[in-house]
Write a structure and sequence with these properties.
This protein is α+β, with helices and mostly antiparallel strands. 42% of the residues lie in helices and 20% in strands.
């Protein structure tokens, strides 16, 4: 029998292992493939994206969790608490150099994509799942589901909705199994892959 993943809150000491696992998990993701078309550099650039995100705000807000198997970090989830999904002005300033290094000439499309997603973002308070990823060598073992249930169980207790954007049609059934419902496909920049917006009412509550 395979051991179940252990879920815990991430700390600054986990940054290197966590960003490596997330970057590997998004190596073939449609949005990252579009934003970072150089396959040879994609993983290292993605590490820069996640490291910037975590260092300049996400980690401090307390919504980042990771999954461990046999003492190694194999995946993680970056959640933003209700009403905190948009970084403040100072956090945005601190993040600019890291994102420019990671995206380089693709910083324009990356910025346009984020603005388009922000325009479609729901206004009601909710937990926002920015990313969840599991190292490809550990996928298919229920790690992603375990990671997500950790936060969603607490959402149910507190009565908090949750929201995400599925960047691959293949992941929509997983999210649906966990109670998310598709609410539409935001209008994105030309050439960007389809993204599915999904909303989850807390268990026992009516959908939005």
């Amino acid at each position: 029998m395979r051991a179940a993943a252990t879920i815990r809150a991430a700390t600054p000491r986990d940054l290197d292992q966590l960003t490596a696992a997330l970057a590997r998990s998004f190596r073939d993701d449609p949005v990252f493939t579009w934003l970072l078309p150089d396959a040879h550099a994609r993983e290292s650039r993605a590490r820069g994206v996640f490291a910037t995100m975590l260092r300049t705000g996400a980690l401090r807000l307390g919504g980042v969790e990771l999954a461990e198997l046999d003492g190694a970090i194999v995946g993680g989830a970056i959640w933003y608490p209700p009403d905190r999904w948009q970084p403040g002005f100072l956090d945005q300033l601190r993040a600019v150099p890291g994102y420019v290094r990671a995206f380089r000439r693709r910083i324009g499309p990356a910025s346009e994509l984020l603005q388009a997603l922000a325009r479609a973002h729901p206004h009601a308070p909710h937990w926002y799942l920015y990313v969840v990823g599991v190292d490809p060598s550990h996928q298919g073992r229920g790690v992603a589901g375990t990671l997500l249930r950790s936060r969603l169980d607490r959402c149910d207790v507190a009565g908090d909705p949750a929201y995400l954007e599925a960047t691959s049609v293949a992941t929509v059934p997983l999210y649906a199994h966990l109670g998310f419902e598709a609410t539409g496909t935001p209008a994105l920049p030309s050439g960007a892959p389809v993204v599915t917006a999904m909303w989850r009412a807390p268990a026992g509550r009516a959908a939005r």
